[in-house]
Amino acid sequence: MKLTIERAALLNALGHVQSAVERRNTIPILSNILLEADAGTLALTATDLDLAINERVEASIVTAGGTTVPAHMIYDIVRKLPEGAQIELAYSSESGRLTLRAGRSEFTLACLPQDDFPLMTSGDLPYSFKLSVAELCRLIDKTRFAISTEETRYYLNGIYLHAAESAGVPMLRAVATDGHRLARVETPLPEGAAGMPGIIVPRKTVAEIRKLIDGSEDHVRVELSDGKIRFTFDNAVLTSKLIDGTFPEYERVIPSGNDKVMEVDGKVFAKAVDRVSTISTERSRAVKLAVQGEKLTLSATSPDAGTATEEISVHYSSDPLEVGFNSRYLLDIAAQIEGENAQFIFADASSPTLVRDGTEESALYVLMPMRV
Hints:
Elements (H helix, E strand, L loop, with lengths): L1 E5 H12 L13 E7 L2 E7 L3 E8 L1 E4 L1 E6 H10 L5 E7 L4 E6 L2 E6 L16 E6 H9 L16 E9 L2 E9 L3 E8 L10 E4 H11 L5 E6 L3 E6 L2 E6 L18 E6 H11 L9 E7 L2 E8 L3 E8 L1 E2 L4 E6 H8 L6 E6 L6 E5 L2 E8 L5
Antiparallel strand pairs: 1-5, 1-7, 2-3, 2-6, 3-4, 4-17, 7-8, 8-9, 10-15, 11-12, 11-14, 12-13, 13-26, 15-16, 16-17, 18-22, 18-24, 19-20, 19-23, 20-21, 24-25, 25-26
Helix pairs in contact: 1-2, 5-6
Subcellular location: Cytoplasm
Subunit structure: Forms a ring-shaped head-to-tail homodimer around DNA.
Organism: Oceanibacterium hippocampi
């Protein structure tokens, strides 16, 4: 294999695929990226056996062929080369090494056989539809903060994507929860998604596809089955296994009888929570909300540090209420409110609170209170 490629093109592709490679691997081949040169393109593939990323870039191919090279090593080398450099890659099957040249720099890297690289097969993916990059970003960004990191509840370690109905309209719905908060966002059901199974997209896959599509302006082709999902866009393909588990019946935790509505400027509220929570203890980060009439008082107490209070204006016409929340959870939800008007819909101090964005009806959040 021998080829020449621009540094910027190679660096961009390496940056995309190498993030799928775990830093610590017990299987040596999984630390490597597969390079395949043929017909004017260089294909790069990385996998951790649960997730595979493939990207193609234009290159001047002298001799077709392939090999595997240490992922993070080659990425760091290319990253440190000067901008605008032309990179020559040459692999010798006799020595089993890849030579990388750019200007006066030359590196020789030990390779592992191409045949040892595990290729992830996607199998039959019967459901296929397109989403705009903006729509997919919205579904991810407004839910992923609520993905659980608790490995024992593995079925919560991802975003639940499924077809649902909202006021009789078919929707594609994304849901994430960690038991303390829940985020639910939906978009009109794309053509081809009808009848799709409910799937749980793993946390790592969510993070990788979000990074890959950042800055892209095209649509994303989504193909899926019960066990796998594939995202295709531009010159990249991400294939991933899905979480094999049953997502809980989340509709049961979304309160329907809450009747105390507080309307507040989302950004003013978030800044006030952030300031007051500075003094609260690190473990619980508890903040108390006391609302009465047109005034909301936020307060936090720490046995070691002292106390903090702040008052902000709100619209509220129900009975006075005091309720406590984890400030980090509050801030995570407040960060999703794009408009000025955030709605907090309470029942009482011990029941789940509903949070809505006044300018976006398709987004809904649930937050469990805590004792303060």
